[in-house]
Amino acid sequence: MSNVRATLQAALTVEGSLGAALGDWKTGMCLGLAGTDTPAFPLNKLELAVAGNTEVIRAKLRVAQSLQLNDRIEDILITLTSQYHLIRLTQAVEGLFFYLVLDREKGNLALARFKLAQLEKNLVI
After folding, report:
1. Measured in whole angstroms, how far is the alpha carbon of residue 25 from the centre of its chain?
2. Sorting pLDDT into bands at 50, 70 and 90, what band is 1?
């Protein structure tokens, strides 16, 4: 589990990161979380967000299948007025996803996507 913890801590190095988690969209379980525990995004909400967003992932996968898309979903972005919520489906381990919350004014979305893609390569479960 230390690899998960270290990976999530590395995800938090992206400027503007408020919280990061690793979830399993097949079960809705949160495998690990890390964050700043700020009023903007309390850490105890992260596990709830992971569980809830498994439904978002499942719905998007059903739509992709219905459309017969011969492609894979890399990430899903939820844009709020003050935050970005980035969901990145891992390709290395089927069924897992990263969930990263960024402050919209401070965060760099492109850098966050790049960082999660890099971290995924070294993830060991």
Report:
1. 11
2. very low
Q: pTM for this one?
A: 0.93
Determine the pLDDT at residue 2.
52
Identify the CATH class of 2-121: alpha beta
Q: Name the residue type at position 10.
A: A
Place of tokens 């495998």: 31
- CA atoms within a 13 Å half-sphere pointing along the CA-CB vector of 118: 10
Does residue 98 sit in helix, strand or coil?
strand
Measured CA to CA, the distance from residue 14 to residue 118 in angstroms comes to 12
Task: Compute the residue count for the chain.
Answer: 125
Q: Model confidence over 34-58: pLDDT tens digits?
A: 998 788 788 888 999 999 999 999 9
Tokens describing residue 58: 């499942």
Measured CA to CA, the distance from residue 20 to residue 7 in angstroms comes to 9
